[in-house]
């Protein structure tokens, strides 16, 4: 039994100490670590609880406990500093951390509030001095106590003084007198004082009575005077006259004069402006817009730095309060027409020119203040030159009435034949049915009349109708461009209409343009995903891109429509391989549009250089030894690598330079070899024309370096005369 | 055999024959009729015949009515004087054999339905034959698998003529089973070796089929206790090779090495390299055996080098591969096309890893930064948005390279000391140059690129910009982002009225294009 027991106990070991050992599952198999408390007499029914001890474990536990309790106490023996954590609710578990934070924040606010409000003079809290409101004290209107005497305030009666300050002397002096008057036993000091008080009270009462009497007398006198006054009025007419002067009898003449004087005078209206003034105004407006454009181009809005005011007065409260300029517009008439245009154009440009309205453009940017002066002058010069160059450019008119002067006469018969009113089309099909089968002039007149009849000022819903019209026109232009052959002349004219509509509804116009671009991009993205490259899109996308550049300022640093269009063009130039002459035409057109976009902002376009180099490469007969690596859409070898090489030198001799036709982009069919060669010649020369200056034949294919320099530094395009060989 | 015309009639006739054969051994000759239908021109009828064969031989296998052991030739048995049962069994086994041969031929059938059915029937036979083996075990607990039959199946799958990718994708579901996977690897090794040696010019379809099959084999990462076997065994023995993952790995390695030993077409190279780091290297018993293959691929140049980089990285990182001139080659990989290839994200992810070491010499980092910025002059905006932060990160990691962006008395642009043609980064003199390209890109037409390039104008902020989200940026995403960015409430408009489609006369479009 004795032997069996420890074994049983040991077996039990791992299970039993589950509580004691804190769930340590591992048994201690080493018998030397176990102490067996042997029982002398096994007693039935008694549970042997401490049959096995683990001295090592229990010692370790005891030591640990001591380090946690005793050692801590020992360490904190002579220390009286206590760290108390006063953070609100730090140890309360029934608050969520959010609640805690809220509460702490509230407490902190409260604390700060109290501290601050001590010095906060603007608060409603009333400041007092000896219980009196300081505000009242400051007003200096001391309220006179009706009880206190007015005359002798501040001066004490001699007796009182004597009683208080005179010491015994005064009283002593007096007592013999009183003693002399009546033989009385000497009164105690208390009695004396009481007497004094009674006396003063009595005095006071007497004074009050006297004053009341005086008041009564005054009132009585007043009443008497009034009674007498009635008698006096009959006798003294002067006084009556004097009264009358205060209320003069309304005189007709006077009334007339007054009325005339007070009548609202006619406001001086703006006088009719002379031609020069109008021109100057227009120029000013353009200058202002140009300044805004430059600012956007440099992306200064983008930088977001608050524009510093030029001058800070010492009195400036710095509360941002500035007297607004009066921006009401006076109604004015030009040539008998209400000039709504001013307002509209201002509204259109309001968003962009809001900040700088009324500011001198040259003061705008402190950083490069030297630049804009000269720059603006230049720009305005260019502007005026341009004006000279375009004598037939019409002054701006109301948008609905606008037309270009060319084709004016041709449209006259069309004007008379067509009906005068058109309902705004509700769907694209409707517009198409209105326009199809008509000549160009008629189509223009129709579109113009739709706009006139549905001018937003005429009815409420017209705005939405015209907004839709923009989208439909855009779609129509796309259809015209995809037609074979493309009807580019109509597009050319319709663009002007689009421009007018866009000026009226910038928001919806930008939305329609972006949706069109998005479609094009989406299509291309699908092709790129599938095959890694895409075909050049149809002419419509190219036309849309070009239109985007004419409707919106392409030089802006960031523009909600132009920037995506730029990305789109970059895609066209990098993802679409050139497989045919059409593709070359399209690519070159995209290049032109791209360059037109950046012609004012002068930005750097890596893809463009790659593309043009690729085209020149395709046109080179002997490709070896150039040492230039082509970039993506072009390949060093392959069936398209000699696309533009002129196969017959004689054809070069018969070739004549002229502009590339945009219609080639939609199809080049049935060409003879000579024609194809001529086309290649055209394209080569076009490419060279587009290429910036230094890309001439000798260095053409390699100097990327030279290019980039050029684009960073001086920036000019010039037509190369040499023909590519 | 008289029967109604059409597949329906064939089905009924076959059903009758089947029952007859299964019912009595006397009717056994009807098997020939069934096998004859297998040769039918009509797809439907063939399918019916395949189904009938499947039922017939399935039942016979289960009943054990096929001869077990080494099969004697038909003539000798028939002539001999053994018992009728034995004769019957040997004869039936021969029929089974010819049926399997025919089914293997049907794997190349033009109709996919027939192919699929033949495959599933063959796999059913494999399963049944595994359960009721037709060989005698050499000793007790000997592992038996119908290797011959299975090899025939794999051979049918790896056809040199037809593209079997559909069938292989069907076969893929069998590969989930451990034993099938193991034997597929063995069979594929043998078949690839035989075909590659047999043909003077191995057709591309074979390589494609082989690659499809090989890449479909995926080993489990760890030895899992519950192995799934296609052929049901009563008890798995630890002595069997097929049970151990180690053996699987060996077979896997043999298979891939055997495959890659041959001269592969270029497109296949790319495919192998794409999956190399992810699904091949981790499962090899000795990944270092791939060193030769990868280094040779890395030397090829172009996209293949880009792809080999990933596998090499795994070897360098995890298997202590010492690669001389690694950075020089990496430098050589940077050419203008790197921004346009499909694997751009992958390449730059790795390049970022390789250049993240702070122990690289400054000249090397400078050469990389300079090369990248030079290439950036040809890159589209979506790539620029990634590569500009990349360059800035390099400058952040290596303050010694910051001279590149601060060189007040530097040489003129014409005299850039950097030599772009030099292949050795040490001799490219990049550290004497400057990153004028970044300044050029500050005039880039895209606002975000311009901003990204302008980062160098200020002191570089210390924390690096993570380029991970920029790696996969596509032009379409950039486009969408630009569209969504609504800065102002109103859209600025052009104030110069338009003249027409081509614009004013001094515009380039009007200069070079006409409407007619």
UniProtKB/TrEMBL annotation, chain A:
Feature: compositional bias, Polar residues: 230-239
Instruction: Enumerate the UniProt keywords alphabetically.
Output: Nucleus, Ribosome biogenesis, rRNA processing
Start and end residues of each stretch annotated as Disordered = 1-33, 131-190, 230-417
Per its UniProt entry, which superkingdom is the organism in?
Eukaryota
Q: Provide a GO biological process annotation.
A: maturation of SSU-rRNA
Acidic residues bias: start-end ranges: 357-371, 379-389
Pfam families cross-referenced by the UniProt entry: Nop14
**Which locations, inside or outside the cell, does it occupy?**
Nucleus, Nucleolus
Per UniProt, the ranges with Low complexity bias are 14-27
Give the Basic and acidic residues compositional bias ranges: 240-307, 338-356
Keyword Cell membrane on this protein? Answer: no
Protein family: Belongs to the NOP14 family.
Q: Which PANTHER family match?
A: NOP14, NUCLEOLAR PROTEIN 14
The name on file for this protein is Nucleolar protein 14 isoform X3
Give the taxonomic lineage as stored in the record. Eukaryota, Metazoa, Chordata, Craniata, Vertebrata
From TrEMBL, chain B:
Keyword line: Membrane, Transmembrane, Transmembrane helix
Q: Which InterPro entries match?
A: ARM-type_fold, CCAAT-binding_factor, Noc4
Coiled-coil ranges (or none): none
Q: Which residues form the CCAAT-binding factor domain?
A: 305-453
Tagged with keyword Repressor: no
Write out the GO cellular component annotations: Noc4p-Nop14p complex; nuclear membrane; small-subunit processome
Which Pfam families does the record associate with it? CBF
Annotated compartments: Nucleus membrane
Its record classes its membrane topology as: Multi-pass membrane protein
Q: Which GO terms describe its biological process?
A: ribosome biogenesis
PANTHER family from the UniProt entry: NUCLEOLAR COMPLEX PROTEIN 4, NUCLEOLAR COMPLEX PROTEIN 4 HOMOLOG
Name of the protein described by the UniProt record: Nucleolar complex protein 4 homolog
- Give the organism the record lists: Neomonachus schauinslandi
Taxonomic lineage from the root? Eukaryota, Metazoa, Chordata, Craniata, Vertebrata
């Amino acid at each position: 039994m004795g032997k069996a027991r420890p074994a049983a106990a040991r077996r039990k070991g791992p299970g039993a100490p589950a509580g004691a050992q804190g769930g340590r599952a591992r048994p201690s198999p080493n018998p030397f670590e176990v102490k067996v408390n042997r029982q002398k007499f096994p007693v039935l029914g008694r549970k042997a609880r401490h049959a096995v001890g683990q001295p090592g474990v229990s010692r370790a536990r005891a030591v640990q406990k001591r380090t946690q309790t005793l050692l801590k106490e020992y360490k904190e023996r002579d220390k009286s500093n206590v760290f108390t954590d006063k953070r609100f609710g730090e140890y309360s578990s029934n608050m969520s951390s959010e609640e805690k934070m809220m509460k702490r924040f509230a407490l902190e606010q409260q604390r700060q509030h109290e501290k601050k409000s001590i010095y906060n003079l603007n608060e409603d809290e009333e400041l007092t001095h000896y219980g009196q409101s300081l505000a009242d004290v400051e007003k200096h209107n001391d309220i006179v106590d009706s009880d206190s005497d007015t005359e002798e305030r501040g001066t004490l009666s001699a007796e009182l003084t004597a009683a208080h300050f005179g010491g015994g002397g005064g009283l002593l002096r007096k007592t013999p007198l009183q003693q002399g008057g009546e033989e009385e036993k000497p009164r105690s000091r208390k009695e004396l004082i009481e007497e004094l008080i009674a006396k003063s009270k009595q005095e006071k009462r007497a004074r009050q009575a006297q004053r009341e009497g005086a008041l009564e007398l005054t009132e009585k006198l007043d009443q008497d005077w009034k009674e007498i006054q009635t008698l006096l009025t009959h006798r003294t007419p002067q006084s009556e006259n004097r009264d009358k002067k205060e209320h003069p009898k309304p005189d007709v003449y006077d009334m007339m004069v007054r009325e005339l004087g007070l009548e609202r005078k006619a406001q001086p209206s703006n006088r009719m402006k002379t031609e020069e003034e109008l021109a100057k105004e227009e120029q000013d407006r353009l200058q202002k817009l140009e300044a805004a454009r430059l600012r956007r181009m440099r992306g200064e809005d983008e930088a977001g730095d608050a524009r510093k005011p030029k001058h800070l007065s010492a009195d400036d409260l710095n509360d941002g309060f500035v007297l607004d300029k009066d921006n009401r517009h006076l109604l004015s008439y030009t040539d008998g027409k209400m000039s709504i245009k001013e307002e509209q154009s201002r509204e259109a440009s309001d968003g962009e020119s809001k900040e700088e309205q009324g500011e001198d453009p040259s003061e705008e940017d402190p950083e490069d203040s030297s630049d804009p002066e000269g720059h603006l002058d230049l720009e305005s010069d260019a502007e005026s030159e341009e004006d000279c160059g375009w004598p037939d450019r019409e002054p701006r008119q109301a948008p609905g009435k606008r037309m270009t002067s060319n084709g004016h006469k041709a449209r006259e018969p069309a004007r008379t034949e067509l009906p005068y009113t058109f309902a705004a089309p509700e769907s694209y099909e409707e517009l198409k049915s209105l326009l199809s089968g008509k000549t160009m002039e008629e189509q223009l007149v129709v579109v113009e009349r739709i706009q006139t009849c549905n001018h937003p000022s005429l009815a409420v819903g017209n705005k939405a109708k015209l907004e839709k019209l923009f989208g439909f026109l855009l779609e129509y232009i796309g259809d015209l461009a995809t037609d074979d052959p493309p009807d580019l002349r109509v597009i050319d004219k319709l663009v002007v209409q689009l421009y007018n509509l866009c000026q009226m509804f910038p928001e919806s116009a930008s939305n329609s343009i972006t949706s069109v671009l998005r479609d094009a991009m989406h299509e291309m993205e699908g092709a790129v995903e599938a095959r890694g490259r895409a075909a050049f899109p149809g002419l419509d996308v190219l036309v849309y891109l070009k239109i985007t550049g004419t409707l919106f300022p392409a030089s802006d640093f960031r523009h909600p429509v132009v920037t995506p269009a730029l990305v789109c063009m970059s895609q066209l130039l990098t993802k679409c391989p050139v497989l045919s002459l059409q593709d070359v035409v399209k690519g070159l057109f995209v290049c032109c549009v791209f360059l037109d976009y950046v012609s004012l902002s002068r930005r750097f376009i890596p893809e463009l250089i790659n593309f043009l180099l690729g085209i020149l490469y395709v046109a080179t007969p002997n490709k070896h030894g150039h040492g230039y690596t082509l970039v993506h859409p072009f390949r060093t070898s392959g069936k398209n690598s000699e696309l533009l090489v002129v196969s017959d030198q004689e054809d070069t001799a018969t070739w004549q330079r002229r502009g590339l036709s945009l219609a080639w982009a939609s199809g080049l069919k049935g060409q003879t070899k000579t024609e194809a060669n001529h086309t290649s010649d055209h394209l080569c020369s076009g490419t060279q024309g587009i290429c910036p200056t230094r890309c001439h034949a000798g260095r053409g294919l390699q100097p990327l370096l030279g290019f980039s320099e050029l684009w960073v530094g001086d920036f000019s395009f010039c037509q190369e005369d040499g023909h590519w060989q | 055999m008289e029967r109604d015309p059409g597949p329906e009639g064939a089905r009924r006739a076959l059903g009758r024959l089947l029952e007859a054969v299964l019912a009595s051994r006397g009717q056994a000759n009807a098997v020939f009729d069934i096998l004859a239908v297998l040769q039918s021109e009509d797809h439907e009828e063939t399918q019916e015949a395949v189904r009938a064969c499947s039922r017939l031989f399935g039942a016979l296998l289960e009943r054990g009515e096929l001869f077990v052991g080494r099969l004697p030739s038909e003539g000798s048995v028939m002539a001999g004087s053994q018992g009728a049962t034995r004769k019957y069994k040997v004869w039936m086994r021969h029929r089974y054999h010819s049926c399997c041969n025919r089914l293997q031929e049907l794997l190349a059938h033009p109709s996919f339905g027939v192919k699929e059915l033949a495959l599933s029937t063959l796999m059913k036979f494999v399963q049944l034959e595994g359960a009721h083996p037709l060989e005698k075990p050499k000793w007790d607990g000997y592992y038996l698998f119908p290797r011959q039959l299975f090899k025939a199946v794999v051979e049918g799958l790896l056809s040199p003529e037809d593209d079997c990718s559909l069938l292989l994708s069907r076969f893929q579901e069998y590969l989930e089973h451990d034993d099938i996977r193991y034997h597929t690897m063995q069979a594929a090794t043998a078949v690839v070796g035989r075909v590659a040696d047999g043909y003077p010019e191995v057709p591309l379809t074979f390589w494609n089929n082989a690659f499809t099959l090989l890449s479909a084999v995926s080993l489990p990462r760890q030895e899992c206790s519950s192995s799934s076997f296609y052929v049901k065994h009563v008890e798995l023995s630890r002595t069997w090779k097929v049970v151990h993952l180690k053996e699987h790995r060996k077979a896997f390695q043999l298979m891939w090495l055997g495959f890659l030993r041959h001269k592969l077409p270029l497109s296949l190279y790319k495919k192998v390299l794409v999956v190399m780091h992810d699904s091949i290297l981790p499962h090899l018993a000795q990944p270092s055996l791939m060193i030769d293959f990868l280094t040779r691929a890395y030397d090829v140049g172009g996209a293949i080098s880009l792809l080999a980089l990933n596998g090499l990285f795994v070897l360098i990182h995890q298997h202590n591969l010492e690669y001389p001139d690694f950075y020089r080659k990496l430098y050589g990989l940077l050419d203008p096309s790197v921004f346009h290839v499909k694997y751009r994200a992958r390449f730059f992810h790795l390049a970022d890893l390789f250049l993240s070491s702070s122990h690289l010499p400054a000249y090397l980092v400078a050469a990389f930064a300079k090369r990248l910025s030079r290439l950036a002059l040809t890159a589209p905006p979506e790539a620029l948005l990634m590569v500009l932060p990349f360059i800035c990160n390099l400058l952040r990691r290596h303050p010694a390279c910051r001279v590149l962006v601060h060189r007040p008395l530097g040489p003129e642009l014409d005299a850039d000391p950097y030599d772009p043609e030099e292949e050795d980064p040490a001799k490219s003199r990049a550290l004497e140059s400057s990153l004028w390209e970044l300044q050029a890109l500050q005039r880039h037409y895209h606002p975000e690129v311009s901003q990204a390039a302008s980062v160098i104008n200020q002191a570089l902020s210390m924390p690096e910009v993570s380029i991970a989200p920029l790696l996969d940026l596509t032009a379409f995403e950039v486009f969408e982002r630009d569209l969504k960015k609504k800065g102002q409430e109103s859209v600025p408009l052009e104030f110069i009225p338009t003249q027409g489609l081509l614009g004013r006369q001094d515009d380039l479009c009007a200069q070079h294009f006409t409407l007619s």
